[in-house]
Fold this sequence. Notes:
Blueprint: H1 3-9, H2 13-40, H3 45-53, H4 72-83, H5 87-107, H6 110-122, E1 127-130, E2 144-148, E3 151-162, E4 169-176, E5 179-186, E6 192-193, E7 208-219, E8 223-224, H7 230-266, E9 268-269, E10 272-273, H8 278-302, H9 312-337, H10 339-342, H11 348-356, H12 365-381
Parallel strand pairs: 1-4
Antiparallel strand pairs: 2-3, 3-7, 4-5, 5-8, 6-7, 9-10
Amino acid sequence: MTDAMFTLENPTEEHALLRRTVRDFAQSEIDPQADAHDRSGELNKALLRRCGELGLLGVTVPAEWGGGGLDVLGSVLVHHEIAKSDPGFGLAYLAHAVLFVNNFFYAANDEQRRRYLDKTLTGEHVACMCMTEPDYGTDGMQTSARRDGDHYVLSGRKALITNAPDAHLFLVYAKVGGRISAFVAERGMPGLSTPPRTHKMGMRASTLGEVVLDDCIVPRENLLGEEGGGVVHMMRNLEAERLTLAALSLGIADRCLDVMIRYAAERKAFGKPIAEFGQIQRYVADSFAKTEAARTLIYTVARDVSATERNRIGTDAAKLFAAPVGKEVADNAMQVLGGWGYCDEYKVERFLRDAKLLEIGGGTIEAHQKNLTRDLVKRLGA
Length: 382
């Protein structure tokens, strides 16, 4: 890695130290368990608690509240390193640390933080964010909340929610009088249930499922911010979500590129390494170039995003570009490895299955294309 690239990925010694910590943790504790949890489809909750012990579940939370006090770039590098070992666990980590913890902290008041933050920072409580519905995303959201004395009554159904089957805490978006609002619900609250988990192609080390809100009783004090303020919370957190999802794709590309290069250098055909054949060179070189381009875009954009600074054009572009790169590099690695790539010894088949989700989750590539075009035209008009 060049000095310039070191500076881009680790702009401070604090970032560099965090990366070394996460890299060592990923190699020693995340990588060894990845295949087993991919096969079982179960979340490794003990491993999530280990993340808590290492201070990784609140990277973007200020130090005075028990967090790491770092920026979005710090969160990006954690996701990047975890994904080199287990993107599925990385997705569960993202749903907890970004979709809930980061979102919750910047939307909550101090009393709410005192009530819920500690156990999510330790990993004792698994958490998730509930936005998508069986027939809708943010468009046409049907889940409703009505005020009834000292509580709200939530009604609706959320679908495709990462961590839902294991979660204790749920950050739920619902409409109050037609305006999107945000609430914290707890497992055990009357009317809240989670059906058996949804089975899926990849990212199996994170669980996925529905959240049913059947006249769920949520205390009034669990409203985050003001009624109708949910869109502001949601859009602010999407900046971090897009970048960390892009970082998962970058981690996949990095791991698969490394496997591909090593195999091409060692595997011989007709008496020479297959790296000397033009077809293989194309897979390796194109994969490297696109991975480096994704790395530069993600980390450049991440430097300009925070809880108070938004860059929707940049974050849309980063995820739009990076998501297909992870899948393409994993696919190229499988092609270079041939039959061995299709088997599970080199892990490439797992990374390829995991990579596809990143073209869908957190906004499809088509949604990013739409958003970018609209925002670029608007900027031109300005």
